[in-house]
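Risk mitigation, structural track. In case the binding assays with CU-O-CU linkage fail to produce interpretable data, a predicted complex structure has been prepared as a fallback.
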Amino acid sequence: AVGVGLSVGISGCAVFARPAPPAAGSVSFSNPLRVPPLAESTVEDGVRVFELTAAAGSTGIVPEGQTPTLGYNGSYLGPTLVAERGEIVRVDVDNQLPDTTTVHWHGMHLPAAMDGGPHNPIAPGETWSPEWMVDQPAATLWYHPHLHGITREQVDAGLAGMFLVRDDVEASLPLPHEYGVDDIPVIVQDRSFDAEGAFTGELGQFDGVLGDTILVNGTASPYLDVTTERVRLRLLNGSSARMYEFAFDDGRPFDLIATDGGLLEAPVESESIPLSPGERAEIVVTMSPGERAVLRSLAPDADLNAGSSSFDVMELRAASALDPSLELPERLADIPEPDASTADGERTFELSGHNINDRQMDMGRVDEVVTVDTSEVWRVRNDNPLPHSFHVHDTQFRVLSIDGQAPPARLAGYKDTIALEWNREYRLLVRFEDYADPTTPYMYHCHLLWHEDQGMMGQFLVVEPGQQPDLRTTPGGSD
Ligand code: C2O
Ligand code: CU
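Fallback model:
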């Protein structure tokens, strides 16, 4: 699967071994899948309040020994937060780590000061309490640190969790809804371990850290006991660099029902779904009593880093008698056609090396200024033959076209992160609503976390019409 592009990208450098999981068929699924607990919350004066404490711990993942890890309210990953559309939420984030961190709500529409990007640091021993109204369609979002330069390190150590938004539309549909029973979070990460069980990870020259062991929700060699005819898997590529193309070992089709920003218009029958780091997909799989099916990753052609063979992720084991599930609906949600004529402007983003538009991230420089309650066309292109993706904070965009063609059905819904194949032009319709703040920027960046840490990120302000913000507003400027 190492394509033509690779030799172009390497200058005079020998090919070196990239960690790859064992070939499909060689994992014996021996550990029950861990399911992150639902986060507890209290309601104070109409505000739903969650508490997250980031701290170091150790976790039993592999037989070699306990793995030193980081987690929220536990030793690895974090609880699943659930909020209803229309609720005001507050999250009290207590940093008990020895280092500064941030918590970013990936995919959430919210004010920049609550976004948890690099400008919202939480010093050791401090608590940060962002509060906002959840106002977007039901979706599988997630949270993770975002401190500039050490995002990969903190995420790879275990700091990540899911944030589910629910709404009336989704609740009224005959979909699997029971968390941990037929509605399952599936956080997929690749890691490597040393002889004592500690994480290892050498920075590859191109992608960042790749691992040879696939974890789901922090479980190695996982299996899931399925007790219902249909099971909904909320897939999150929580890896820092690896691309996946999720499929089943027997090629069985499944229904893709939602992507990053929520439900698709209708279920899309699929045999595989590619996800780059940060992307999500909700799929519904139908099982027969007593059967087993292995979720695996195929080696997609466009992928430079998944190795040349497919590899296993998780086994589904159906009970000998399954509780009945409802038929999937024919329609899921109203998704308006994206209309480029509503755009007020157009910008271009070229990703190359570790740069976007030939620049590296500078905390003190605002790269783009957009006007609140407008839409724009963002033309995004990956100019070098390495895997990159593009993620925009605060908003869910629509894909207008890829190289002039309408996007495939799997990219026709709301998205906040998109894999960028080399040398293609992605036209995105991006909308900025509700929240203007002339002093705190949002981020756009490649979601391969090491690329992001290396500076493949830029900052944009959302301002009121006519407002002239200071373009060097924030600390850390150096240019
Ligand atoms: Cu998932 Cu800017 O991040
Ligand atoms: Cu990248």
